[in-house]
Structures are given as structure tokens and as C-alpha cells.
Specification:
This protein is of the alpha+beta class and 140 residues long. The chain contains two helices and eight strands. It has one domain: 3-Layer(bab) Sandwich (Archease, Possible Chaperone, Chain: A, domain 1), CATH 3.55.10.10.
């Protein structure tokens, strides 16, 4: 049976994601998928444009926040939505390298979901061993 990619966590005035993966990189990918399913339906997003992201952080929790915050910045500043993520996390160096694919948000094509204002540190968790799991709450 295929493991679920993520689940939505309901929290007072916030919404969150608990994401899973066979690897830490896959858990980071699934967290991004989950975030864009909150913003819009990521399955409706076509891989028209590719964006490359390189990040370094002092720990894996910070790396997760920076990763999702960078995607949120691209979403709000350039009106982009993403549906496919290829992430490599180097947990020894707390480094992330990603290729993300998406397109401009289009109201006639994409569902309007919740507006995420920020990625928070509240209830933030990164489990860097099997089963790989990350958890993050968003301010909406």
C-alpha cells in the first residue's frame, strides 16, 4: 500500500501539514504539495515554468521553514503556483536544492483556496529517520 503523502492539521486560526516520505527529501516535497493544495488544487497546476531554489540553514527545522517560505514568496510576489517538486536535502550540511515546476495562478483554471500569510515555527517538527515526517503550521 502506498503511504499517504501528507495530511492537513486543523488548528485555531492556522492550518498545518504533516508530510511523509520514504526519504527526508520526499517529505519536504510532500510538505510543499500539501501547502499548494491549501492555496489551490496543485493537481490542476501545469509544469510550464521551472524555478531552481538553493537554501542553507542552521538546522533542518529552519531549512523546512525557509523552503516553504521561499515557495510562498514566489506565490505571493509573482502570482505563481506549483504542482511538482524535485527536492534534494543534504541533512549533513542542512542544504536544500530543488527544481519546482508550475505556472501563473489563473482564477478561471485554479481553485481559490486559503491565503497563507506565513510559515510559522509553532509545532514545527522534522523527523530525520524512518518514517520520515515533517510538520508545519501556516498562519492564514
Amino acid at each position: 500500500m502506498k503511504q499517504k503523502q501528507y495530511e492537513i492539521i486543523e488548528h485555531t486560526a492556522d492550518v498545518g501539514i504533516k508530510a511523509y516520505g520514504e526519504t527526508l527529501s520526499e517529505a519536504f516535497e510532500n510538505a510543499a504539495k500539501g501547502m499548494f493544495d491549501i492555496i489551490t488544487d496543485s493537481s490542476e497546476v501545469e509544469s510550464i515554468g521551472q524555478y531552481d531554489i538553493e537554501l542553507d540553514a542552521e538546522d533542518l527545522e529552519q531549512l523546512l521553514v525557509d523552503w516553504l517560505s521561499e515557495l510562498l514568496f514566489l506565490n505571493t510576489s509573482q502570482n505563481l503556483v506549483f504542482g511538482f517538486f524535485k527536492v534534494t536535502v543534504d541533512d549533513k550540511r542542512n542544504h536544500l536544492s530543488a527544481h519546482v515546476f508550475g505556472e501563473k495562478y489563473n482564477t478561471s483554471k485554479h481553485r481559490i483556496g486559503a491565503e497563507i500569510k506565513a510559515v510559522t515555527y509553532h509545532m514545527l517538527k522534522v523527523r530525520n529517520k524512518k518514517p520520515y515526517e515533517v510538520q508545519v503550521l501556516f498562519d492564514i
